[in-house]
Amino acid sequence: MHANLELQSTISEWRPRLRRLAATYVGTDSAHDLNHLDRVWANARQIMASTTDANGLVVLAACYLHDLINVPKNHPDRAKASSISASEAVVRLKQLRYPAEYLDDVAHAIEAHSYSAGIAPRSIEAKVVQDADRLDALGAVGLARMFHIGGRLNCALAHDSDPLAMQRPVDDMLYSLDHIEQKLLRLPDAMQTQAGRTLATKRADLLAKFRDRFVSEWTGRLEGMA
């Protein structure tokens, strides 16, 4: 119990320092701002409530520093962003005198969080961070982020006549709505923790219901309409 209280105190001391560091890196993309980092940390805390063997200080650092280098979705170096962020995080953490024995664990958790990088998480901390970040792509906030990112990439909201991609390939680089089928609805099955899967399933259900309603309005097939 004493060790747990001591760790919580350490986390409370480090969170504002890591948050201030992250604030110096965030740009104009509100899908990857400080609010996103706060939500990822909140998600991680929910997951860790049932994953007691995760090191909270490692998870904290990875949650706040995983997007230090944010490469746009359509950039050819997108898959390298998490590795670059991990290297940058280690440099900055050393400057802050973060515990040296945790640096490798933080770096791996940052590298493995990325969907694009495809790096398998080896530690429980990396699994928690990956799940926590992906949870923010789901649910109501995930929908808002999806359309925001699509707008920044000049994507159409949806295909004019085939929004569900029944007779065409899905392409979320052209149509924002396609991102639900192409990636988001697949996330629950890819979650690394049981708590993450449970939360992701609930949030994905909202996405599916939203998509059904969106398509009804998009195609003019609402109740009482021809």
List keywords for this structure.
hydrolase; 226 residues; HD/PDEase_dom; mainly alpha; globular; 0% strand; hydrolase activity; HD_domain; Hydrolase; Hypothetical protein af1432
Question: Overview of this structure, please?
Answer:
This protein is mostly helical. It has 2 domains: 1-123, Orthogonal Bundle (Hypothetical protein af1432), CATH 1.10.3210; 138-225, Hypothetical protein af1432 (Orthogonal Bundle), CATH 1.10.3210.50. Helices cover 58% and strands 0% of the residues. It contains 10 helices and no strands. The chain has helices at 2-23, 34-48, 56-65, 81-95, 103-112, 124-135, 139-152, 178-182, 187-190, 194-218. α1 runs parallel beside α3 (56-65) and α5 packs across α6. The longest helix is centred in the C-terminal third of the chain and has 25 residues, at 194-218. The model has no long low-confidence stretch (mean pLDDT 90). Keywords: Hydrolase. This is Hydrolase.
